[in-house]
Design a protein that fits this description.
Structural class: alpha/beta
CATH architecture of the largest domain: 4-Layer Sandwich
Strand order of the largest sheet: 6-5-4-3-2-1-14
CATH superfamily of the largest domain: Ribonuclease Z/Hydroxyacylglutathione hydrolase-like
CATH topology of the largest domain: Metallo-beta-lactamase, Chain A
Largest sheet: 7 strands, mixed
Distance between the termini: 5 Å
Order of helices and strands: EHHHEEHEEHEEEEEHEHHEHEE
Number of domains: 2
Shape: globular
Strand content: 15-25%
């Protein structure tokens, strides 16, 4: 499977403030002290060595993931990242895709009204979720009180398929298994398999009880995944301060990844207030935790999911 993250921020789209950009430039310049940056080769080597969180950013779009197996396209969630994915798809001719929706909080659906391929006759999109009223939910956010363009303007063919939780479904090359997660209102995670590859999309979940008996169902859901995309919106202390807000931490993701034998853990659903420095610091804490749990043996790789990250799994 090929995956590409088009949106990794939680709650609300968040642009990088001008002051944060200025700070990144300052850090880069400080690190270049004594170097002859007029020399193109020196400059190129220096830029190559810069940490990603200095020259780049986690990004600001809300959740959307592109997944491909062969020529088949599967889209997970319709946050603001869906708009950018749609712009890329517009250059590739007629489109057909399956779209999985975890839940309908705005940050997971507010990119849909800006998904340009949905306005193109001949395109075909099938939405899958455990919500029998998903079509109505999407239409309601485009009522005149909230948005100027109704769903009826969208000319693509759109069908809706209701999934039962804790059952496997075959969607072309993909096998999909929805499981309920703990978050205000109903929300679901998805385990997706194609060939020998496995992906778990588990944003928006809280884990209040962490004993083995209470978490074994999650461990089995994540078991041996090639990539686990995990809600790491808060630090561990913030999780305790924000009980019932429905989010988790990088350290909790690391613990689950260790117990489930996950190969790669992608920290995602970053809080709108989290700077790149904070996000990468959370990753370092998760890596340190896993090194201790794994007795410093090679194990799970920890990644920061950022807008534009692409992986083969």
């Amino acid at each position: 499977m090929y995956v590409k993250f088009w949106g990794t921020r939680g709650s609300i789209p968040t642009s990088l403030p001008a002051e944060a950009i200025k700070q990144k430039i300052r850090q880069a310049l400080v690190g270049a002290a004594g170097l002859n940056l007029a020399d193109e080769a020196v400059l190129a080597r220096y830029l190559e060595r810069l940490p990603f969180h200095i020259w780049g950013t986690a990004g600001g779009n809300t959740p959307c993931l592109e997944v491909r197996a062969g020529n088949q396209l599967l889209i997970l969630d319709a946050g603001s990242g869906l708009r950018l994915l749609g712009l890329e798809l517009m250059s590739k001719g007629r489109q057909q895709a399956d779209i999985l929706i975890t839940h309908t909080h705005w940050d997971h659906i507010h990119g849909f009204p800006f998904f340009r391929p949905a306005f193109v006759p001949g395109n075909q999109f099938t939405f899958h979720s455990p919500f029998p009223d998903l079509a109505d939910r999407l239409a309601r956010q485009q009522q005149p009180d909230f948005f100027p363009v109704p769903v009826s303007y969208m000319s693509a063919s759109m069908t809706f398929n209701t999934l039962a939780e804790n059952q496997w479904y075959q969607l072309g090359a993909f096998r999909v298994y929805p499981m309920r997660l703990v978050h205000p209102g109903l929300t679901y995670g998805y385990r997706i398999e194609a060939g020998n590859s496995s992906l778990v999309w588990a944003t928006d979940s809280e884990y209040k009880q962490v004993d083995r008996a209470s978490t074994e169902n999650y461990v089995q859901f994540f078991k041996n995944a090639d990539l686990l995309v995990f809600d790491a919106q808060y630090t561990l202390s913030e999780v305790l301060d924000k009980a019932d807000w429905g989010h988790s931490s990088a350290l909790m993701g690391a613990e689950f990844a260790h117990r489930a034998g996950v190969k790669r853990l992608a920290l995602a659903h970053h809080d709108p207030t989290s700077s790149d420095e904070k996000i990468w610091a959370d990753r370092e804490q998760a890596e340190a935790y896993l090194r201790r749990r794994q007795n410093h043996q090679p194990g799970c790789e920890v990644l920061v999911a950022y807008d534009g990250l692409s992986l083969e799994i």
